[in-house]
Design brief:
single chain; about 400 residues; alpha/beta; 7-stranded mixed β-sheet; 5-stranded mixed β-sheet; 13 helices; about 35% helix; globular; binds pyridoxal-5'-phosphate
Length: about 400
């Protein structure tokens, strides 16, 4: 079974503490006023002031909330960053990064294969504000070098990519990005900080849809941006206050609860992912299975260097849209639905679902692809379900 090589970002008595200890205890300390072991949900919109400007650090809940502070402390530690700011969804977190760090005339380079909602935001909303975007295969450092412009401010990367499972060398891309005077943001949703910590390889910020593995139970939306510089913390806190797309106390609490079991869930996702990927690869009806855990995946060596597990995500080619539809109609244990990273296996058709918004563009994904987020059910049941669906 995979073991995270990442120790977590908090220190106790001068020594670094382990990932799971950080997940369970950092920001999750018992409530000092009552002793409650679980972080309370502070359902309040405002806070009493003893006198004008005299308060306990909390003034209004859009600006700050104690449940949110606890979650932000926890997530900053898990990604080994210096700050974290949570937002109402992953897309609200992406939006906040662009609002904080881009202005009219700036340029952002985005990986050519990312969650479809990201280019939808860039191409259909932010171009209206005079921001320029280009899409590059960031697994090719030369292509990135060529795409850098004088006004490039951000390079935006997902690794492995969604859904094609192409890896980007974070260290190399951080070097090129910094040489061009820009900052590297890595969407680490697919791997979670348990299997990959982009800041350790030189990324400047990490973003997650907490909707996925960090929550882990498919019962809440959320997003986070983890920063490394004071300016990240200042601007993102300001944007929470100014634009208001913050995460509610209840949804913060769901993520605080979810991360306590992140390590054990990720290990089981990884174990099941390996078994399911092996089964799919041997299936005669499938033309190709995209999974970085295979020793012949073109970037297997990079995967082993940069990640400490291969995770839950497997994408496969069925040969045609018809085959894909036929299979998806037959699954019973796997749930046909958008999203990923829940305890239940989630299966979907990127072309018609998560990536429908990039259909007809240079970012379109093949129509026969199916993406599977392998859950933590009994692996034999998942394999039997997929076998039946493919028959
Ligand atoms: C990799 C990735 N990033 C960002 C997002 C957007 O997150 P949300 O759905 O929480 O807005 C998603 C959603 O599927 C995703 O898969």
């Amino acid at each position: 079974m995979a073991k995270s090589k990442f120790a977590g970002g908090t220190k106790q008595g001068g020594s670094k503490i382990g990932f799971s200890t950080t997940a369970i205890h950092t920001g999750q300390e018992p409530d000092p006023s009552t002793g409650a072991v679980a972080v309370p949900i502070f359902a309040t919109s405002t806070y009493v002031q003893e006198g004008l400007g005299k308060h306990k650090g909390y003034e209004y809940a859009r600006v700050s909330n104690p449940t949110r502070t606890r979650l932000e402390t926890n997530l900053a530690a898990l990604e080994c960053g210096t700050s974290a700011h949570v937002f109402a969804s992953g897309m609200a977190a992406v939006t906040a990064v662009t609002q904080c760090f881009l202005k009219q005339g700036d340029h952002l380079i985005c990986g050519h294969n990312v969650y479809g909602g990201v280019p939808r935001l860039f191409n259909q909303v932010l171009t209206n504000y005079g921001v320029e975007f280009s899409y590059v295969d960031t697994s090719d450092p030369d292509a990135l070098k060529k795409a850098m412009r004088r006004n490039t401010r951000i390079v935006w990367v997902e690794t492995p990519t969604n859904p094609l499972m192409v890896l980007t060398d974070i260290k190399e891309v951080a070097r090129i990005t910094h040489a061009g005077g820009a900052e590297l943001v890595v969407d680490n949703t697919y791997m979670s900080p348990y299997f990959q910590q982009p800041l350790a390889f030189g990324a400047d910020m990490v973003m997650h849809s907490t909707t996925k593995f960090l929550n882990g139970h498919s019962d809440g939306l959320g997003g986070v941006v983890v920063g490394t510089k004071p300016v990240h913390a200042e601007k993102l806190a300001f944007m929470q206050k100014a634009s208001g797309a913050i995460l509610s106390p209840f949804e913060c609490w769901l993520v605080l609860r979810g991360v306590k079991t992140l390590a054990v869930r990720m290990e089981k996702h990884d174990e099941n992912g390996r078994e399911v990927a092996d089964f799919l690869r041997k299936h005669p009806k499938l033309t190709q299975v995209l999974y970085p855990g295979f020793s012949d995946h073109p970037q297997h060596a990079l995967a082993k260097r940069q990640m400490s597990g291969f995770g839950a995500m497997v994408t496969f080619e069925t040969g045609s849209l018809r085959n894909a539809k036929k299979m998806l109609a037959k699954v019973r244990v796997c749930t046909l639905g958008e999203s990923l990273g829940g305890v239940e296996s989630l299966i979907e058709h990127p072309g018609r679902m998560t990536h429908a918004s990039v259909a007809g563009t240079e970012l379109e994904v093949p129509a026969d692809l199916i993406r599977l987020s392998v859950g933590i059910e009994t692996a034999d049941d998942l394999i039997a379900d997929l076998d039946r669906a493919l028959s």
